[in-house]
Write a structure and sequence with these properties.
Rossmann fold; two-stranded parallel sheet; globular; six-stranded mixed β-sheet; 353 residues; alpha/beta
Length: 353
Amino acid sequence: MVTFVKGVELATVHYGESSSVFLQNLAQADTAGQSLTYVSAIALTEQEVVAYNEGQFGPSAKAPTVPLAAVYPKEGTLISDNPFVVLNASWVSPEQKAAAADLLAYLLAPAQQAKLQAAGYRDAQGRAAVSSRDLGTIATQPKTVIKPPVGSVLDKLQASWWTVRKPARVLIIVDVSGSMDEQVVPGATKLDLVKAALLAAIDQVGDDDEVGLWSFSDQHQQLVPINRVGAQRAQLKTAVASLQANGGTLLYSTVHDGWDYVSKSADPTHINAVVVMTDGQDNHSPGGALSALTDALAKQPEGAAVRVFTVAYGHDADKSDLGLIAQASRGQAYDASDPTLIRQVFLAVLSNF
């Protein structure tokens, strides 16, 4: 079973916090006529299938050229349940219980249940809208429902994740331009917060993942080459601790060179990616560098693409350009406008791997 699951995971494009990232990328691929080369299958709820086929994830809100079709495994399907619960606690007043009962009665009324069905959800009795087949789902399925395992089994399944997941091969690129020396909280600069976030993130990476570290300001510099984390975790932490802020922002050229570096040594058994964090706008790359970068990223073969995940740090980062870079590579752009949230953002980025 472990061997089988590992084989399935090897086909992974990348992981993520939610399936919405995949659906947005799939819609983009569909617009370019490449939807059938992005992913062959993905685990979704019926509601997400309906929403995608209605065009809710596409850039122009149009239905996709190649719609999704729900597959209901003969072995059975898990139900995503959303229970309505009123807590039986001393601090829950009779008035609050009565209000909750009123809300439940309102939600169960035919008009509200019909709205849920129209949005792609099933009603409280598990019935789908009759027209659901037109939007990729089948009202009479699933024929077999699987009950979730007990908590102790789920716990062991989750713990086994590190042994079956597809490992990552990631280059982290950090902006150390002069603006990173700005103090954002008492006693800490932007760069101080980034260092703390990176150190926490490095602790979350598995031994068999491969990570490298670059920094950039007027120029880019390789601090730690991409290698197995188990062999260089201490070296990565030392390099992070030594980062110092100074100089301009050579963003586009650095990302292009970093992506080229990862692409030329990509490992098909790993998720190959670039993560770039910047707090400013490019002021050192030559003219046309952004267009050259996005063109190169967009021309990657779908099955072997090195995706770029961008982090806009602080209020001065160019979110628009960073979004274009991520979109061209079929990666994702993250917003850390509030510098104090950079640790949470970095951990969210890591969820892709």
